[in-house]
Amino acid sequence: MPVDPNALVTWANAITAGRLVLSPVMFLVIPDHQRGAWVAYLLWFVLSLSDGIDGWVARRHGTTSTGAFLDPLADKVLVLGAMFTLVSRDMFPLIPVLLIAGRELVISVYRVLVSSKGVSVPASKIAKCKTVVQQLSVGFALWPWFAADYRWLWMGLLWLAVALALVSGALYLLASRAARK
């Protein structure tokens, strides 16, 4: 059954709100060493999976303006919070995480500015791919069976996420510039 586009309480929004509320819990259980590694990984897996589930529910039952705001916010809180926590645990280097965070800040401000003019900026396919690569990078870094022996894998995914973030960000800005001409 379709939902009212202005509805606040929907299944998709409830899933997104759950992701927002549980994200800080996940940051707290990211281990300094091996303690809590499986808990952190499983919580990351569930929260990342919930991103796809809330999108599926929203597409099936209808999107809301609240969900359009909350979902990208929850994505940023989850991914950037986990990445900065991994930086604090000396697992991720700071530079790629700062590059990703900078891109997110620039594009978020851009979206607010253009939405104030009534222009909608949906996520591009490359930006959705970026999110998945970011989730995989963090997931492999947290997965106890992969974290130590496959550092090259999750570090490679982290740098791929940086490349996708910068390319998708540039494409958003170029499209905006072209639309103004």
Tell me about this structure.
With 181 residues, the chain is an all-alpha fold. It is 78% helix and 0% strand. The protein is built from 7 helices and no strands. The protein is globular and about 50 Å long. The protein has a single domain (11-180), classed as CDP-alcohol phosphotransferase transmembrane (TM) domain (Four Helix Bundle (Hemerythrin (Met), subunit A)), CATH 1.20.120.1760. The longest helix has 30 residues, at 151-180.
Please sum up the structure shown:
The chain has 181 residues and is mainly α. The protein has seven helices and no strands.
From the structure above, extract its key features.
mainly alpha, 181 residues, Four Helix Bundle (Hemerythrin (Met), subunit A), 0% strand, 7 helices
What would the CATH topology be? Four Helix Bundle (Hemerythrin (Met), subunit A)
Low-confidence stretches: none
Task: Name the CATH architecture.
Answer: Up-down Bundle
Strand proportion: under 5%
CATH class: Mainly Alpha
Largest sheet: none
Number of domains: 1
What is the radius of gyration computed over CA atoms, rounded to a whole number of angstroms?
Answer: 17 Å
Structural class: mainly alpha
CATH superfamily: CDP-alcohol phosphotransferase transmembrane (TM) domain
What is the number of helical segments per DSSP (H or I, 4+ residues)?
7
Q: What's the pLDDT, averaged over the residues?
A: 87
Distance between the termini: 41 Å
Topology:
Layout: H1 11-29, H2 37-61, H3 65-88, H4 94-115, H5 125-142, H6 144-147, H7 151-180
